[in-house]
Each structure stands twice: as structure tokens, then as C-alpha cells.
Amino acid sequence: MYWGLWLGIGLSLALASLQDPNHRPGRALWEPFVLEISSLLASGVLALVVYRLARALHDRPLPALLAVHLLGAALFAIAHLALMHALRWPYYWVLAHRSYGPLPWLQALGFEGAKDVVSCLVIAALCHGWLWRQREQAQRPAASRAERLQVELQLGARLQPHFLFNSLNAVAALVEDDPRRAMRMLARLGDYLRGALGGADGAEHPLADEVRSLQDYLAIQAMRFEDALQVRVDVPPSLGALQVPRLLLQPLVENAITHGAAAPQAPLTLSVRAWADDTHLLLSLHNHPARPQGGGTGLGQDLAREQLHLLDGDAAGLQAGPDDMGGYRVQVHLPPRRRGTGDAAGARRG
Length: 350
Description:
By secondary structure, the chain is of the alpha+beta class. 60% of the residues lie in helices and 12% in strands.
């Protein structure tokens, strides 16, 4: 289809040239076809080069784009003239028994150069317009999904209603027996809700904020379950500025507590760790012993996977399953970046 388009334009121009009353006397009927089609096919070859160049430079600042494309337009003019001569020479040698070269090279370049420069810049502009349109179409559904996911995260999917009801019931039960403890739990619940439903806009925030919100949540659960829940959080301060999805850990932790601390067996030991290497920030949640999850839907893990994929694609992921020590482990990996960057600057192995 691509080459058919260029060939069709060349044929149309050749037919129009045949009807031109001011054509050169003694011109053969085949010459307009050779001249126009060779010019268009040469342009088609060079347009592919311009497209590849536009793709490589698409994210560069506008001044840099203009400078490169102006230089490229000059090279385009020279290459176009050379390709046209290379395509035309065999036809003139076979059909007219002479070589092709109506004008000296510099004179021909002066005659064709201005048109070729304009043609190159028009092709480059069309390429960039096409690339911008493709990017917009690709980002639109992803942005829409990200917005829906963020609303879902903040307004209920990850702030489980039963957690709120259970916490408030626990506060009510303590009001008479231990009012100080009830006030502490209520204060922690307020801190958690403020961090979960408030805070900065956007799908990401620093790991330090994520851990702070998680610690508020765990403090409430520790007050509820007392000795049935033992928690350890090991997140080096040096990783606190790295960006993570908002409310990533809480639903994973809640799932472990729901199926663990409330069970009548041995106390649940819950460990949350974070560390980084040269390519990933890693977050690990380990609970021991592993308890049967019954009719659990795994919604927390599914939402975490979707959130990671929306933000980082295949560069992030989540793995989960039982380990050899009778526990259950969930591990998340994602690129270690600071706010507004895509690198791992400042990350250290924890």
C-alpha cells in the first residue's frame, strides 16, 4: 500500500505532464513516466529514513528537532538527486541509447534543492503529527484506567469497610474498660484515614509516606489483636524518597491479618521489608504461619498487579506463594525512582 501510494502519485503526475502544452519538443512518451515515477520512488525511500529519524528524535526539544531536520533536509536534497539519477540512467541508456544528465550536478541541485528541502520538512512534520497522534491514542485508555483505579483505591476498594467497622466496634468496646486505649486507637484510626484518603494528588507517593500509613494501620490492628499479632517493619530511611503506588501495601497486609491473626492457632508473625539493588526497589511481605485463605478472592493482589502494570508496565510485578518454612510471602519489584525522575539515583541496597 505504501509503495502503491507513491507509484500512483507518480503516474498521475506523468499523465498530467503528457497533457502539458509547454512540454519539451521531441520528448518521448515514456520520459514523463520515468522522470515522475523515479522522483516519487526516491522520495518514498527517503521518507522512510525521515520517519525513522523522527521516531528517534520525537521527544527532543523543538529547537533541537528543527536543527536536525534542517540539516537532514539538505542531505535529503542531495540523496534525492542521486537516487533519481541512479533510477533514470538505465532507462535512458536502454531506451534512448544515451546517459541521463540534462544538467550539471550543481545546477541540478540548485534547481531541485529548494523543492526537496520543502518536501523533507513537510514529510517530517507529517511523521511527527502521526507519532503524536499515536501516543495520544495509546495514553488515553491508560490514563482513563489509571484515573478509575485511583478513585477506586481512594474511595473504597482498598479501604475495606469491614476494617472500619471492626475498628470502630473495638473502640466502642474499650470506651468503658480502657478509655485511654480507646482514644489511642481512635487517634491512630484518624491518622490512617487522613493518610489514606488525603495527601498529595497522583498515583504515587514516597515510600516513607506509604510506610507511615501502613504503620498507622498496623498499630490499630495490634490494639485489636494484641498478642495474636506480632509485626516487624524493616524499611531503611535511605529508601524513603523512592516512589511507590499509593496504598500498595495495606490491602496485602490486611489480607494476611484477616486470614491469620483472627485464627485460633499460634500468633501471626508479620514481616514487612524493603531493599533496593541497581535495577529494582523490592518490597516483601511475609506472614508465618501461613493460614488457609478459604474463600478469599485475592482482590488485593489483583489490584496491586494492575496498579504496578499501569505505572511501570513489565518493569514492575508481584509474586506470591507459600515458602519452605510454612509461611506465605508476597514480593513486589518496581523501578527505584525519585519523584519526577525515572532513575535509581540515591538508591542503596537495604
